Amino acid sequence: MQDLTYEEGYACWLRYHAVEDEPLRQSYLRACASIAMPGASTVLDAARRELSDGLRAMLGTAPAPASAEDASIVAGVFGSDPRLGAKSLTGAEGVRLDEDGFVIRRSIDGPIVLAANTERGVLYAAFRFLKLLQTGASIERLDVTDSPANRLRMINHWDNMDGSIERGYAGRSIFFRDGRFVEHLSRIRDYARLLASVGLNAVSINNVNVHAAETRLIAEDLLPDVARVADVFRAYGVRLFLSVNYAAPIELGGLATADPLDPEVAEWWAERAETIYRYVPDFGGFVVKADSEFRPGPFTYGRNHADGANMLADALAPHGGIVVWRCFVYNCLQDWRDRKTDRARAAYDHFKPLDGRFRDNVALQIKNGPMDFQVREPVSPLLGGMTNTNQLMELQITQEYTGQQRHLCYLVPQWKEALDFDTYARGEGSLASEAASGALFDRLIGGLAAVSNIGDDPNWTGHPLAQANFYGFGRLAWDPRAAADDIAREWIRMTFGGDPQVIRVVSDMLLQSWDIYESYTAPLGVGWMVNPNHHYGPNVDGYEYAKWGTYHFADRQGIGVDRTVASGTGYTSQYHSPRSDRYESLSACPDELLLFFHHVPYTHLLASGKSVIQHIYDSHFEGADRAAELLARWDSLQGAVPEATFREARERFVHQAEHAKEWRDQINTYFYRKSGIPDAHGRTIY
Amino acid sequence: MQDLTYEEGYACWLRYHAVEDEPLRQSYLRACASIAMPGASTVLDAARRELSDGLRAMLGTAPAPASAEDASIVAGVFGSDPRLGAKSLTGAEGVRLDEDGFVIRRSIDGPIVLAANTERGVLYAAFRFLKLLQTGASIERLDVTDSPANRLRMINHWDNMDGSIERGYAGRSIFFRDGRFVEHLSRIRDYARLLASVGLNAVSINNVNVHAAETRLIAEDLLPDVARVADVFRAYGVRLFLSVNYAAPIELGGLATADPLDPEVAEWWAERAETIYRYVPDFGGFVVKADSEFRPGPFTYGRNHADGANMLADALAPHGGIVVWRCFVYNCLQDWRDRKTDRARAAYDHFKPLDGRFRDNVALQIKNGPMDFQVREPVSPLLGGMTNTNQLMELQITQEYTGQQRHLCYLVPQWKEALDFDTYARGEGSLASEAASGALFDRLIGGLAAVSNIGDDPNWTGHPLAQANFYGFGRLAWDPRAAADDIAREWIRMTFGGDPQVIRVVSDMLLQSWDIYESYTAPLGVGWMVNPNHHYGPNVDGYEYAKWGTYHFADRQGIGVDRTVASGTGYTSQYHSPRSDRYESLSACPDELLLFFHHVPYTHLLASGKSVIQHIYDSHFEGADRAAELLARWDSLQGAVPEATFREARERFVHQAEHAKEWRDQINTYFYRKSGIPDAHGRTIY
């Protein structure tokens, strides 16, 4: 495992390439000659180590320890040394500086000051400072003030204790193996570094589908192991959460019920919380998937989700923990013959009536779209729909429906669309990102959570370029206003170094990849044309007769789901005006979501001027061609990226090019056979 | 496990109900007062025990032991006592009496004589005699001479050593558990009884897909266990076979190759055979799935199937063993876009050129149809196509594609169609059953083999009525001319007793069940409209874009596979004339196979006068209604069949009725959406 292949992919964006521009290196060396870091703690130790190791790798020499008066770099918590300034310090642009924020300042020829309200802030400042050098920035003058937009910046793992990962495409769990915690935690430590380096501060380590083994994670025999892992994360400023089984009072506690209004149940959870906090004093809290896809929950007892979440919240509140309550609730035993029930409506219908009834330490975790991480969905109307409830937007880094880390699909542009979505909840400019952060409705808790794409593969993510999604999520969780192309470029620089050709080619590939993937898979927002269960590869009718509420209703005349108020399920009414009107209108509805909101004939003309059927043919032919070009473009980088990375990615691009043809042919054939309308350009359809 | 429920289902057709007609019981008692069975051996002991136990159960008293001169029943091998007569004895109808045949004779008031050439024949005579009493026959005068039509009457188990059963729907393996042989063999003994009671004489106990664990069944550490099981079967006249891994010389023997023409490989197998026969002196031989669905085989070494089979045959020949070589060979990595390759052609194309090149102790095992046990297929053209090669017809008792023992599907009528199929290989009347038995081409080895439907469920087969398929296969393997309704009636009598209502209702249900199942599932011979992998439930396009060579090519105009010589794959030419002409002709092709041989518009008129689309609608609506009637008819038997059996079956009939609606609606909706042609009767299609 210690060969070059491993090391190269393993380091991700913390590879710290040596600075090759000699004048620049000299200027860096001068500015980083020595360092002082008052105070001692595991988090400060981590920051100190990162600065030392990172600078040594990039400059050839680590900064010498010095006293604060003499040091060229002074890093620490405000007030811990006169040169760090007092807590009142704010940045040049007046940015609010919350507990995770930091400043990086340098006057000409003065010392470099990395200062923050908390030790975690100091660690973030250290990583940010290192990034300046990784990306070749000038550090002659510095005046950076930064604070995360989101208080909670979380990764959800869907790891099981047998070592498997639900929807994992990069090996086995780094936490569990064969029903137990792994013995050696060094990989978890390296993972915690990666999280901290992009400002992520929370992690839930087990699957939201909590099976028998994981139900025991809150039992005393396993809590010592939980505590060991929490210690590792704590050193990097990351709080540990656990997914819990709502039926744990029965399965673990031996009670007769898990009814949230039963005092014995509440007491059981309170006692559990107390025990957990004895082992993990900064325990983050619980992540809960309740009454969803056969998981137990308050519905069993005739209670609602507020009853269910608040009871857990009360158990955690005395200790500072929170409940992350997922809104992925719908009827998963739907009859495909029933066209009135609409899964897209479900989360809003369930949760909107409960707005304002959740405790302050509950956050509802809302998937970005109303269905389930499809390549294209509208934004969930719950984001901006709930005005008196803490919200988290849930994204999926692991590429369940977007190529499973065998296809390239840089998801940051997709996430950006969701974050920048105008909900109109407080009039124009009411962005979904601000509904999630809490800013829109002055909520204290808010943020982003995302399902991890990492496993024990040597390069963490299977596809080497899928690391960009992990990185990108962290960046957006800190700053949702960051641009997708900026994130791509800085990730490439940090990962592969400064070769302009690599930056240009890889950033082009990344930025086009979502569009490419969408174009040869699901047309016009309709989704779900995948093989059941594993969700890989084309199957147009794969979910058409299923119980999951996932239909496209294609017949020989047309396709799409009528979700209008006028003639369909009325889902469009869950949005604020004018958004709702736009979706309701066949002519105003954006092309890319047309089939999500409307059932139209194949001959319907899109805003683009093309018919629906010709759009399907064109996008699939072009998409497959563009997938083939990805391979050609990657091939142009041979020698310019590490050989092992080149090979690992190339193997996947070869597969993607071939598999895109399969997508193209199956989908085109399906619609040609159904519509009988030939391709205007006479290309081969089977 | 010893409660009544268990006992009732467990005994199958050997329940030996007490004779309730008192005069009849008295006549039986008089005729069976005492018994003499000269000789001693495990097989004769089994016969003696069966007669004693069976008569006691039916009559209240077991026959008393007596000397041959005084006994009312004399049973044994010809010549072992004067009253048994000499070997030259043949039956009244001049039936040839081979090694497994027997006679049962009685002159008025004379003793009952059960005599045979072999001890196994005596055992068969005993079971036959018991059946006379089970079915209430008069035994005042008896002159039965019977001999099996097939020399090999075999069951194939697809059991794995982990205890799972590939395509098993009745629990886990009775042979293996957790990687080892089961400890207690009593259930295997009871199974051997059931086999012998219907004249089955061969069994292969492990899956034709031979994985690593089962490859070791021919290794010395496992052969003692194999021998223990063979001993159990031997006592009931059943020879044990093993499925072998063609790559065993490499995986087990450590050789560099498994090339059949390599002398070292041949020597390795010869040595293995010798070892096996040291443990199992009457070992039957090897069953081989080679070069099929990713199994290794001679193709790897550029050899053909004759090379592959003959090498194994030479290893077994000195010991009297045979090679059963499966013909299920086709391209399982086909491209759905390629319409020239036709899986239906594959077995014939592979094996026909090798006719005459196989050793005399090789038998080719040919599935009844050219595809894979679909609810409706034509008969394989290899049956009757090979004139100089031993053949076995392979049937599937386990209901992989026919309802998985949750739907009722009595398969004997389907098998009868295959057995009675006129191949025209030697002119009119050249039945497939005689191609299989060897009679048609004067081959010494021939017979039937079938994939077992039993497991460790208390009632063996899951669905209580699925026992009829197990029984029926045994009966047809002995006598392919037996009628499906006779077999049904005798099975019902033996299983449930003589209640005329039960006999009438259950036999009606059994005899209609295949037709019912076909009518709500696959229309007009097209097949494969099932969910991939597990093969349960409707999925019209489930195999349409797959690699398995299984397509229906439905588009908005029509459906079916053109397998004609004139315009299609030419598969029809594999049959002898006039069969080939009939299939080639659109007008002469039987309706039920129309879409197997022809691609036609939905508006095409069938011989029945209906259009194809209306036939699809009608058969699916009627089929679902008839499935619901099965439940109602079964309900009429409450109290008339054992309560546990009633409940077990009822649960399945409830499911079948509901699932038939799902089949109906999915298939009708699919074709309505595709064709746009409404149902002539305006019934609901979604």
Automatic annotation (TrEMBL), chains A, B:
Coiled coil: none annotated. It catalyses: Hydrolysis of (1->2)-alpha-D-(4-O-methyl)glucuronosyl links in the main chain of hardwood xylans. One of its GO terms (molecular function) is alpha-glucuronidase activity. GO terms for biological process: glucuronoxylan catabolic process. Residues 461-683 form the Glycosyl hydrolase family 67 C-terminal domain. The keyword Hydrolase applies. The active site is at E293, D372, E400. It comes from the Bacteria. Homodimer. This is Xylan alpha-1,2-glucuronidase.
